[in-house]
Records
---
Amino acid sequence: MVKRSRFVKVFLTGFALLVVAARPAWADHKPASSIPAEALIQPADFAASLAASTAPKPLVLQVGFRKAYAQAHIPGSEYVGAASDDDGLKSLRDRVTALPRDTAIVIYCGCCPWRKCPNIAAAFEALQQLGFKKVRVIHITEDFGTDWVDKGFPTATGS
Amino acid sequence: MAYLRLAACALGLLLTGAAWPIGAGDRAPEFSLDDVAGKTLRLADFRGKVVLLNFWASWCAPCVEEMPRLSAWQRDYGVGGLRVIGVSMDDQLAPVRRLLAKHPVDYPVGLGDVALAERYGKVLGLPQFFLIDRGGFVVARYKGEVDLTQLEAAIRAQLRMPR
């Protein structure tokens, strides 16, 4: 009986390890839904704020994939790398680390549907951990093409 | 008057450098790219086949979730003339190779670039599909998470079309 119970334990442990090892990398990403609602800004509202010439401009960072940024991005925004990988996060931290913590920063991705975006929550969390208090996130529900470009909001191209 | 409007629109697209939107009825832009095995993938080589062109990336959760289904379609409908082609929008080939080593697929996968994405009217979100008929024309473009049952029905409808 003891032997059988040990076998079951070993089997279950082995199975759990196998399941964890087999999880694809994207499965471990923090979901975009973890970003508090008060940090979100709708694409139309952000586009309107860009158009207002008197409004102070925030630092706008794209934290998605480079090939999308090269095709279309928000004018004035900078590409800092996909926040879902270590290189991208490092690049984000390097870009902002010397800035005053009250700098207004807007981040966006739009690589894929919001609830499955691997980048945006990781970038938001990294900025929070660095102590930035004025971080807003553009709430792109489908993708950058659908929610920004197709809506006719201002767009720039090139990397 | 309609011609003038069309010409003005085309001129606008040219001047702004915007990509012409590709959709149903347009000829699918030709491309040639190396797949992960080093073999050249040319769309022209698949003329006479129904092609399902899938833009994806290794970090895109919905894309990866769809891949087993795409593999199954290639196995089930390959004899009838379906060719699934995966175009990864990853920056590099290494993560694509790693993912495919863990989750092999039954169709060729190559690394896409900005020029190819531009030719397909910009690929600004993933996943994206282009269903291309046997004559090389786009039947439909699907953006984001699609109903795979509907997509399969569209594929089957194309495969049933007279050659």
---
Amino acid sequence: MDSLESLVSEYWPALRALLAAGLLVSLMAGSAIIFIWLERKVAGRIQDRLGPTRVGGKFGWLQTLADGIKLIAKEDIIPGSADQMLFRISPYLTFIGVFLAFMVLPFGRDVVGLPMNIAAFFMLSVLSTEVFGVILAGYGSGSKWSLFGGMREAAQMVSYEVPRAICVVIPVLCAGTLDLQLISEQQAGPFWNWFIFRDPFQFLTFWVFFVTATAGCKRAPFDLAEAESELVAGFHTEYSGFRWCLFFMAEYGAMFATGGLAVTLFLGGWHTGLFPASVMPGDFASPLGILATVLSVLVFIAKSWLLVFVMMWVRWTLPRLRIDQVMMTCLKYLVPLSCALLLGASLFPLAWNTLGLPAVPFRNHPGVPAQHAPAVSKEGQAGADSPGGLLASENPRELVGSP
Amino acid sequence: MNVAELLFWITALLTGLSAIMVVVTQNIVRAALWLLFTLAGTAGIFFLLGADFVGATQLLVYVGGILILVVFGVMLTAQGPFVNLKTGAGEWAVSIVVGLLLFGLLGISILMTEWNFTPAPSIEPVQSRLANDLGLSLLGFRDATPKADLPIGSPGEPPRERTRLAYLFPFEIVSVHLLVVLIGAAYLARAKRRKGPAKS
Amino acid sequence: MNQIGLEHCLLLGAVLFVAGIVCMATKRNAIGILMGSELVLNGANINFVAFARYNETFAMEGQVFALFTIVLAAAEAAIALAIVLNFYNNHVTVDVDAAEELKG
């Protein structure tokens, strides 16, 4: 037993990473299961019908399970003119690009996969690697519908990254840090502390960010490349069964990830917005602390699911844009709009202070904030009996070449 | 062997093998795929070496920008006979010999030099402020680089201090450079009539 | 080996560098040559960041130089692709062996 304990304590960072990755994958898969059911129900209700009602009782709860069984049992068809290696590998590339974004989302106080100083920037950069999977899927399928769809999707996703990045910079300006944990902690307390209410420009930026996130996830009204009447199914025309399932998990995962980013940047992160800031218990290890942490995780997930529900609602309400309208919206409307919002968000606090308006408590933020205290105080840890902690602040990153 | 070393070996092998596969493969689209793995592996190496911001920039600019550009270029020009262009055996022989000689030279100079450097300790996540220091040095604050007083000059002189504008000037130059490149590339790639019918 | 030293990172940079040079020398596709130049620049970047990690004096300089290299490589790739596309539009081929005349 002693050697097992020493083995665990030596490889604890890897074990904790695997545990966190397993939790995130199950969250992503569980969310995808619920989203597929929710999409069909929302589609049905908006179209004045009921949606799935047969599988699993009155509300069709088990419809996704039936869908999953069907997908796994399908025959795996690869077209003859497809490039074998590219065809097989592109769903995984897309999935990896989306899954990495979950690594830095703060689900609660100190409940992060890996806390990074540049978390918002990291999320933007890994979400931009998803495009390559789309291109390879389009080319590797060996059919012209897939190639056209893939190229159009790639052009759309790459173009919408520009206003999305500018819209992420605007709350970062308000917060003074790229660290998503610190940004969430600055929004503690009642809901008027949320970044969306701090500035008229932040308020507008939330909606622009939501539009660019919808476009970046290839959702309607920007889903021309997947439209059945235009291009059969775009880049995933030739994919069936489990490979298609991976593409759709990646799409729902991207919706959840950008929804989570919007929640962290604008809507208060894991805070409920109902209690004042001093209510949070300081000690994590107490039962009240654990309850508070579980509540924060649930609040974060619920807020992200709400944003995903809004994306679905928009999908089944608005008609589709043509591809030239999609590109025009980005390049002629959203990029100048987001630049103007950036300019306004930079100048607004300056104008507020210059005009001598009364200082709101958070208006003069202290510049670069100090480091946040870890959830568990270091003196309280025995260190000898447990290999390490589960929380993010208890696990320092090991780098290559450390002495 | 701890976790960081294991990850370094895995990532380094992935990067090196993918770089060699870029050279070896004849299909240009497969070469783009191997280039993706090389660039992503390089980003992984940057993260393992503690350079988070550079790693994220590598992913954003190289994988999400340059590689997309390269693949679009491949798609626009890879029509049939241009997907697999084979090189003669003589060229391969000369290139490989020269490449191995160059690698030998670099390897010998790396292994035979006395690198008397001590690496920094591991970075605590709550205290990592590298991105802040990077931003401050790009804005031109000298205090962001306190260890940068290099002992240049003859042995008796005190070390020269750095000037006030740390990296502001190159930052501005690169910004103007990017604007020039944007305008130039848009002009070069404007729509023109193709000279003759495309080969089938 | 127990420790990852500076030599390992520099050797990896050297592998990428040499692979890029061989790629630039052997590929007939113009875009393949561009890929080679990207490999060369990545090898140099790994060297920069390795020196930034293993030497306290260059902790900031290595990363700043790597950032500038990435940005300039992006600019160079954009222009190189514009040139390649122009060449393709004029000669309907992307084979560099066909680029043997100075005119046109």
---
Amino acid sequence: MRLGKALVRGRGRAPYLVPYILVDRARSGRLGATVRALRDGGASAVELGFPFSDPIADGPVLAGASGRALGHGTTWRDLLRGVRTAAPLLPTAVMTYANPVWRRGLDVALEELATAGASGLIVPDLSWEESGPWRAGARRAGLDLVLFAAPGTSLERVGRIAAQARGFLYLVSRYGTTGTGATQSAKELRPLVDAAHRSAPRLSVLVGFGVRDRASRDAALSSGADGVIVGTALEERLAAGVSAAALTRWVAELVR
Amino acid sequence: MPRRYGPYGGAYVPETLVPALEELERTWTEARRDPKFRAELRTLSETLGGRPTPLYFARNLTRRAGGAEIWLKREDLVHGGAHKFNNALGQGLLARRMGKPRLIAETGAGQHGVATAMIGAALGLRTEVYMGSVDMRRQRPNVERMRLLGAEVHPVTTGSRTLKDAINAALRDWIANVRTTHYLLGSAVGPHPFPAIVADFQSVIGRELRRQSVRSFGRLPDLAVACVGGGSNAIGTFHPLLRTPVELLGVEAGGRSAGSGGAASLSRGRPGILHGTYSYVLQDSDGQVADTESVSAGLDYAGVGPEHAWLRDSGRARYVAVRDRDALAAFHWLAEDEGILPALEPAHALFAAVQEARRRPSTQHIAVTLSGRGDKDLEVVLRASR
């Protein structure tokens, strides 16, 4: 299923919860069970992250996980394997920095991801200005290219970005990297969410960077957003060896 | 202001940084046309920075090479001991114009960190510098200088703990504090508009060189040589010469041996996206950025400025790699022949210049940008010669 269909706005299925898992060869055996646990808890889709040597948008937890995954020898092949595992269970978006995709060849990489079953692509260091060839490539491959907005983005720009985003609009909740610092207040995020909804009424806005529990989820959703992305808090649980049952309960609590 | 150089350049950054990059471009576009800004930049370049720097005929080094005349553009005489001052001053003035009270910077050899700390002190801006812990060890005197100048130095202990990781840390800080902080990027790398702005501020090198060579030997040099890590002193040297017949030669760090990767992105890398720009990058087949190694911390970087990528592809400039031990040899030549201790970064350029001089008749002139002085490198040089 296309990501945008799974996360379509205004069908009463919101709020959406999309967890983020970094692909790591050392725990590839557990990936299926993890995604199943997330699905059973009520996750709407899953993001699979590809580790990168220089993850500038990530805070210490996810950057550390990225470094460890590379140390374990994680490759593009492991990512494709991960997509093939996850995609039958939940709509799967791949999150990767721009260079690994570019190095592989934009069209080749997108085609491989789509063939493996991915339904969307998220590139945190791809600004809207540089996204043209990527949007065209994703369209050709049948992938939804997610675009970003952030607290400093002007309302006019949010509208323009939302009009060209596919899958969902990723609203970064604050100034900072993943998993660090405090979220901007819902009052500050609301105009951005409204501008995106006005421009693209069927496109969900998902808030990420800093959503880690029920309270921060509620705060994020009170901006009018359609869902949240949870990355660092899940990574901490996976690193601590959380059981599938506990993971399902945790997700259910966040979705409820 | 160019956003792309051929296919290279652009701004591959998280959305959070886009408004700040736009503000920076706007501010520089206005400032460069503002006579008051230009006057202040010029006055401080002269009275604080010591510009113009001389063009020196290296008579003894020329004799050693036995060919073309070798002339040195003495950026080692700029305040702080390197060309980094030129860009730090310019961007510091832009930060003040934008009303940003805090500067952050990355540094490899420490020269850019020192320059930023000096400018921060002079303009009353709080300064924090990110430096890889490996580099802090091998360039200790510069760490102490930054601290004495009032800057806070943050050791970076992730990744290869060198320049690349210091840039990552600075970018993360900027993402978090972008409303109050200017990231004073030290080389002609990074997202647009940084490569263009840094080239503008460093072009004072090439403009002076053009004027001084005509005054000194009646015409432009036949060849201009500069070392390339990110490539700021080289782009500053090359820019004003682009539309002249002068040959341009950039010299990268070749590392320990001919087989090793060193840090020669243009000679041994492939096009890729690193730190916000599309340029040549040393990387593996999965697009993971490679660890680099060089005797000079300032050249120890897996990427390179996007304009150099285009100058290489278009053939306007040539780029070669010089190995550690050849750079060390050139260090000693200049010390013994001319009484000048060069930094290890331009020692790479010196070696290549001597090679070129040997192949050319004595009627030709080679200008080498001596981008910094070698005091910071004494420990490394002494250890290498033991």
---
Amino acid sequence: MKTETVKMIRLVGLIVLVILLIALGRSSFFSVSESEQAVLTTFGKYTKTVDAGLHGKLPWPFQQVTILPVNLTQKIELGYGSSGNNQYYSIPEESMMITGDLNIVNIDFFVEWKISDPYRYLFETDSPNVILKNMLQSTVRSVVGTKQIDDVLTTGKIQIQADVKEMLRQHLESQDIGVMILDVKVNDSEPPTEDVAKAFRDVETAKQEKETALNEAIAYKNSKLPEANAQADKIVRAAEGLKQSKINEAMGERDRFLSMYEEYANFPQITRDRMYLEALEDILPNIRVYIDDGSNVLKLLPLDGSDSTNVLPGSAGN
Amino acid sequence: MKKWIIIAVVVLLALIGVSNSVYTVQEGEFAYITQFGALVSIRPNAGLAFKIPFIQDVNRLTKKQMIYNVNSSEVLTADKKAMIVDSYSIWKIVDVTTFIRTVNNIGEMQKRIDASTYSVIKNLMGQLEQSEIISDGEASRTSLNNQITEQVAASLMPYGVEILSVEVKRFDLPEDNTTAVYARMISERSQMAASYKAEGEYEAAKIRNETDKEIEITIGQAEAAAQRLRGEGEEEYMRILKELYNDPAKAEFYLFVRELEAMKKSLQGEKTIILGSDSPLVKIINQVSD
């Protein structure tokens, strides 16, 4: 009976001892993964920061360890949130803001940051993540507040990203919470409502239409001007042709005349008569000729042989 | 046996005593010792520390910088425009003694920050026009934040806290104004669209008109050149023929040739002529018939 009690006590003692040893072991070693660093405190006081690997420490209550994801790139989504399966939802309170020209824009940011100073992050700052997000909101609004709506929606995004990053960096310099900004991106920058967005698209359409109208006008110019040049060329060429033919005509006439004149100069009267007769030959066959010799009888040509005289119908009675 | 019990009790009491007199101060906090409620000492540094057991109590306050989101409030700008302002403040306890005496509690302190920030913002923004607050450069926004910080910090100094910064993080229009802004944005855009359209039409018309003008000029010039050429042709014609009648003999003959031609032309077709008996033609005829 007595030996059994002793055995029992020993067994319990052994179990307690093993549990204690395990607890001691667990409390004396800790491992740190590659993305982390561990901060060690002794009686609450900061002792050191250690990198990845297996490390030993004094057990509780002497030393305590806090593991921080120091090397991990962390993110802030401003203006939207994402749920598990790539579903995004908008947070208008964060994303709607006023631009410098008093318009409202819906703009989302994606910011990457990491812990730069574990000591400050852990011991000098209460909820640094919340502070960082608030600083970001303030910075983003300051920057967008200096920009024009058109810049914010189109070409100014790069500048906004750079400005936000720089301003945030300055903020964090003057107010160190143990974090650093790696990257700032404008995720989406849109007009605030569907109606406004439509109005913006209409402007784009109008710009396109303007381009189209100009292009059509230029096409008109490009096709009509050569046509006109061709027509002008035709007019000038025709006139040149006309001029040349006039000259040719003159020269032809001159040459013909000169050759006739040569002959005429040799035998003036004969040539003259011959030409006259030739001319008559040309004309007379088709012409009725009456000769008035002072009497009432008119001789009628052509002289067709059968009847050399004829009487004009009107003078027959005389 | 009795001796063992006494030893056990003593050890137990000693343990309780020790555990009640030893305490740790964590990084990022102040510990302060009170004795029957009265502040005795402050331990600002982390580590192991001692106190008189049972009589003295350990209290803790955070040394860390904290953020407090100030409740959003509506303010009126100098040009009587309502705006919703959301701000936050980063602050920390610096003078524990004063803090304990004056507020003694973080939640209470937050209320003071709230009140002070609200009145400072209302005051400062009430002196600025809406457009100054929104659209002025980063520099002035920063200086506005700095002014707010300065004034809030000064007003809260008596509580033993330091206001590291007060930042306006949201500065928005009230709901009904927002709708008006949307309407204005839409109308601005429609106007832009209309002006692009008109510009396009105008510039296209300009190009067409310019083109038509150039066409007119080109054709006109061509016609002028054509007239000139015709003139030249005429002139050349005259010049060439002039040689012929400069000489009186040639001129006489030329005239004769022309007369013949003119006669041939005018007597073309079925016509009738009456000749006098003394006409050369009649003489020729008479000679022939004789």
